[in-house]
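[Automated response] Your request has been received and processed.

Submitted sequence:
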Amino acid sequence: MEKIAVLGINPHAGDNGVLGHEDMRILKAIKSANKKLGLERFVGPIVPDVAFTPHFRKDFHYYVAMYHDQGLAPLKALHFDESVNISLNLPIVRTFCRSWYCI
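Generated structure:
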């Protein structure tokens, strides 16, 4: 089962609160989700500005971004015609799919 990279809310995720405490909340949510699943499926918070580098993409194919531009810009730049974006917590269903095999 592939792991899912959860990006930090700011570019300095993992700085142990030096530039804010948002990522501490994300880490708590990741631990809670993994505990409920009974396995280590979610990993993070990951530093967003390195998450889409070739080295990092070797280990992760799925990402949870905290906001629109953080995930959608790299997704479109790297895999515009073969990717799926799903926006959560909106009052409408919104997906972005650019591929001949998407349903």
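Summary generated for your ticket: The radius of gyration is 14 Å. The CA atoms of residues 69 and 75 lie 10 Å apart.
If you did not submit this request, please reply to this message.
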